[in-house]
């Protein structure tokens, strides 16, 4: 989904790439949670939540 939104110009390509990586990490959390690095989770929470907000703004623009 993020790749398509990036190619269609709904999201900027860099954001689309970061969100793809976040989706991969989500799969790790759900399916292989024993292997999760807690320091990595904390880093994402501290420094990468703006990507989710930017995604929300991009989708909101598309809807309007």
Our estimate of the beta-strand percent is: under 5%
Number of domains: 1
Q: Which structural category fits the helices and strands? A: mainly alpha
**Please, how many helices?**
4
Note the run of SSEs as H and E.
HHHH
What's the β-strand tally? 0
Question: How far apart are the first and last residues' alpha carbons, in Å?
Answer: 19 Å
Mean pLDDT: 88
The residue ranges in which pLDDT falls below 50 over 5 or more consecutive positions are none
**Over all CA atoms, what is the radius of gyration?**
13 Å
Q: In percent, how helical is the residue content?
A: over 70%
Major beta-sheet overview: none
Overall morphology: elongated
Keywords, please?
mainly alpha, 64 residues
How would you explain this protein's 3D organization?
The chain has helices spanning 2-7, 13-31, 38-47, 49-63. The chain is mostly helical. The protein has one domain (2-63). α2 (13-31) packs across α4. The model has no long low-confidence stretch (mean pLDDT 88).
